[in-house]
């Protein structure tokens, strides 16, 4: 089992994208409810102020670096991650694998146009994919039990939840057992991107760790606090970790 690298108190699995995909396959084969989360600078910063989000992230079966900021931080700390494994890229790889392995998927979250567009996108790209169902993310907390019941009745093997953080992580942790799902992944705004409603940053910006800047310029009013404040807090947390000498990797027991 791969080690987890301590990034400002959050354990991140030191896996490549291919290795993360293999881990997902093994988790599904093992049976029982499992879930994965992806973290970026803003989410790590939020977790420091949100005890429930911290608990959910530490309990996840798989945690990957969604942003290059986390990868860069691991280098400063002296425990280099192999690379980033974003929610959207991992979701796309899982969908392709699900088609090959005849596993069914369920899409939950975002607006109706977005989630329906994501289903249509994957239906076109992976024509043999079994889509067990989908539902938008605009429902109240009291409807969660009914939604979880619908997912269970769908018989889906894999669940993608696109509600943003910490809502998606909290919903998965609270409702996963009731859904009967074998594996769930929180994917943030991924449905908007794969449906074509929101343009993703150019590849060179993704690789340079500047995808956050592209998104900030695209939606400054909505995202300025998340990126400017969140990234600043994250940088300070990493600097404190480096100065304190706390560069320990987390073992499987620490999860």
Q: How is the topology of this model organized?
A:
Elements: E1 4-7, E2 10-13, H1 17-30, E3 34-39, H2 41-49, H3 51-59, E4 62-65, H4 68-77, H5 87-101, E5 104-109, H6 112-125, E6 130-135, H7 144-154, E7 158-162, H8 167-179, E8 183-186, H9 190-194, H10 203-207, H11 211-218, H12 220-244, E9 249-250
Parallel strand pairs: 3-4, 3-8, 5-6, 5-7, 7-8
Antiparallel strand pairs: 1-2, 1-9
Helix pairs in contact: 1-5, 2-3, 2-12, 4-12, 7-8, 11-12
Report on the architecture of this protein.
The protein is an alpha/beta fold. It has one domain: Rossmann fold (3-Layer(aba) Sandwich), CATH 3.40.50.10700. It contains twelve helices and nine strands. The strands form two sheets. The chain has a six-stranded parallel beta sheet, sandwiched between helices. It has a three-stranded antiparallel beta sheet with strand order 2-1-9. β1 and β2 form a beta hairpin. α1 crosses α5, α2 crosses α3 and α7 crosses α8. The C terminus is likely disordered.
Number of helices: 12
User: What sort of overall outline do the alpha carbons produce when their principal axes are compared?
Assistant: globular
Beginning-to-end CA distance, first to last residue: 12 Å
DSSP summary, beta strand count: 9
What is the CATH topology classification name?
Answer: Rossmann fold
Number of domains: 1
């Amino acid at each position: 089992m791969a080690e987890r690298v301590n990034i400002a108190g959050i354990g991140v699995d030191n896996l490549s994208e291919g290795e993360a995909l293999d881990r997902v396959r093994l988790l599904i084969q093992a049976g029982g409810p499992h879930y994965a989360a992806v973290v970026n600078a803003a989410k790590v910063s939020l977790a420091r102020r949100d005890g429930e989000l911290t608990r959910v992230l530490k309990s996840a079966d798989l945690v990957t670096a969604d942003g290059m900021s986390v990868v860069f931080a691991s280098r400063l700390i002296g425990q280099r991650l192999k690379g980033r494994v974003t929610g959207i890229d991992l979701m796309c790889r899982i969908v392709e694998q699900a088609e090959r392995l005849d596993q069914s998927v369920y899409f939950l979250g975002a607006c109706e146009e977005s989630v329906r567009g994501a289903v249509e996108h994957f239906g076109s790209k992976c024509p043999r994919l079994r889509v067990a169902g989908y539902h938008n993310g605009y429902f109240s907390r009291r409807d969660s039990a009914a939604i979880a019941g619908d997912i269970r009745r769908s018989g889906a093997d894999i669940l993608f939840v696109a509600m943003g953080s910490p809502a998606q992580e909290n919903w998965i942790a609270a409702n996963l057992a009731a859904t009967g799902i074998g594996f769930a992944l929180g994917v943030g705004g991924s449905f908007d991107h794969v449906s074509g409603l929101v343009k993703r940053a150019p590849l060179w910006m993704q690789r340079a760790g500047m995808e956050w800047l592209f998104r900030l310029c695209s939606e400054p009013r909505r995202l300025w606090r998340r990126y400017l404040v969140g990234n600043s807090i994250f940088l300070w947390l990493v600097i404190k970790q480096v100065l304190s000498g706390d560069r320990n990797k987390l073992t499987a027991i620490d999860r």
